[in-house]
Amino acid sequence: MAEVVLFHHARGLTPGVGQFADSLRSAGHVVHTPDLFDGILPASLDAGLALVRELGDELDARADRAVDALPDAVVYAGFSVGESLAQRLAQTRPGARGALLYESCIPVTGEWAFGPWPDGVPVQVHGADGDEFFAEDLPAAQGLIEAAGPDLAELFLYPAEGHLFTDSSLPTYDAGAAALVLARSREFLARLG
């Protein structure tokens, strides 16, 4: 089974993120869920993004410390703001087994890029059609899928509304879409052996 590090979104390590991680664990995977906000659960997405801005480079440093003791061969996963941490580590920390990128995506070329997508690293990107934030990232996701290649990369769009539709503890949760995200994520991890 796979070992996964799952980074939370800007609302913090919510019960919904924990439930998602538990669902992956129930399939036999080892899932680490570092709390990069030290227990803070921002009351809104705006408050969470303000905390992310306040933390600045410290957020990246906390993510780096969270994986320091882990083996190189892990799957990096993350929701929204946590996606950018997962993607950065998948692209820059040698040995990544794969990446699960939820509700966000960073370009693999241009000024925001972390560099090219690493050869041989499989990736799935999941986003909602009705998510204004993901709509901005969709070209980046399509570029990543093209760069990684059809044998290694998949992009899934869901008929869900709003951002953070995968978090069962938030009002934007879409149970049907989130169940499909989880099923596809579990299939992806199972393929990694």
Automatic annotation (TrEMBL):
It comes from Nocardioides daeguensis. Residues 4-191 form the Dienelactone hydrolase domain. InterPro entries: Dienelactn_hydro, Dienelactone_hydrolase-like. The keyword Hydrolase applies. GO terms for molecular function: hydrolase activity. It comes from the Bacteria. Keywords: Hydrolase. PANTHER family: ALPHA_BETA-HYDROLASES SUPERFAMILY PROTEIN, CARBOXYMETHYLENEBUTENOLIDASE-RELATED. This is Dienelactone hydrolase family protein.
